[in-house]
Design a protein that fits this description.
Number of helices: 14
Strand content: 5-15%
Number of strands: 6
Low-confidence stretches: 1-7, 219-246
Radius of gyration: 27 Å
Largest sheet: 4 strands, mixed
Strand order of the largest sheet: 1-4-2-3
Oligomer: single chain
Length: about 325
């Protein structure tokens, strides 16, 4: 299974034969325990099984409980082992990584239980880092963290997937990133992140939110044109931002005729949303004028939320094409 080729710190590349009775099974990362069905599959495999991973300090299995059980049932004297040297908490993380990469897949319950234990052992790790390890979404990790209450410690800094520690209270750094971006609109995501002490993902979010806010705050001149100078630091919004864009009606028509969109459920949903979300500029103004005062705040807030959603879609498509900065 390639364990011997792993470059993970603490994991040996050497395979050694170890007496079966020396190795311990103190538990399993699987909520349902050992799978009898998987044992049956392994038992039918001819020849020796791939090496298992064992924590050298405790002689407990990290990866390969099913293989060890089969070896014992075969009355084997020894089994091939790759040793791991590290803390028990690190051994558990390695178990999750190895079991997620191959072999019998971890169930949703297994992954949530693993995430809960890693939250207890490494509360300083970011939601995205834990989500990647456990095979869950970062939203699920956030919900687990919120639901833990006082059970877990709550550090002021979290370590991201890149190994960098980021402060939990990032509001001041977000403001710094915004100021940096307003001073240098052409700055790259990495430059913003480095200058403000935030992650590249947060830097992209700051840029996106600034674009949305500038779009909402754009003022029309008396002749109805958008004033470029209404945008701080030269960031032009609205129709003035893309003066050479093709006619939107023609673009929409071509998209509606594209079979790769028309003949998929998701594509048709996208086309329906695009069809209803493009009133003419004068229609926007007419709708704004018709909103009753007591509804204005709610309409404005919803409009900003929807604008952020569309901006997020645009950013995702750009990243897919490799055009995001």
């Amino acid at each position: 299974m390639g364990v011997e080729k792993s470059q993970r710190k603490g994991l040996s590349e050497k395979v050694v034969a170890v007496g079966v009775e020396r190795i311990r099974i103190s538990g399993t990362i699987r909520v349902g325990g050992v799978s009898s069905r998987h044992l049956g599959v392994l038992a039918q495999l001819p020849g020796p099984l791939p090496p298992i991973v064992v924590h050298r300090a405790t002689m407990e299995v990290i990866d390969g409980v099913h293989r060890l059980v089969v070896a014992r049932r075969r009355k084997a004297v020894s089994i091939d082992v790759v040793f791991f040297d590290g803390a028990p908490q690190e051994a558990f993380v390695l178990a999750i990584e190895l079991n997620s990469a191959r072999g019998l897949p971890l169930s949703l319950a297994d992954r949530k239980a693993a995430a809960g234990r890693m939250l207890a052992d490494f509360p300083e790790w970011s939601n995205r880092r834990l989500a990647e390890l456990a095979g869950l979404s970062d939203k699920t990790i956030a919900a687990l963290r919120r639901g833990s209450g006082a059970e877990y410690s709550h550090p002021t800094r979290r370590i991201g997937r890149d190994g960098t520690a980021y402060p939990m209270d990032a509001s001041a750094r977000r403001r710094r990133a915004r100021e940096f971006l307003e001073a240098d609109p052409a700055a790259s995501t990495r430059e913003i992140a480095s200058a403000a002490g935030i992650s590249p993902t947060t830097a992209k979010d700051v840029r996106r939110r600034l674009r949305v806010q500038l779009g909402a705050a754009s003022q029309y001149r008396r002749d109805g044109e958008v004033a470029p100078e209404a945008s701080p630091a030269g960031l032009v919004t609205g129709s003035a931002r893309r003066p050479h864009s093709p006619d939107r009606t023609l673009m929409a028509h071509r998209l509606r005729a594209d079979p790769s969109l028309r003949f998929t459920e998701v594509g048709r949903k996208l086309l329906r949303l695009l069809a209803i979300a493009d009133p003419a500029p004068e229609e926007w103004q007419s709708m704004a004028d018709s909103v009753p005062p007591h509804c204005a705040s709610a309409v404005a807030e919803l409009a900003r939320c929807y604008a952020e959603s569309w901006a997020s879609l645009a950013d995702s498509v750009s990243r897919h094409l490799g055009t995001d900065t």
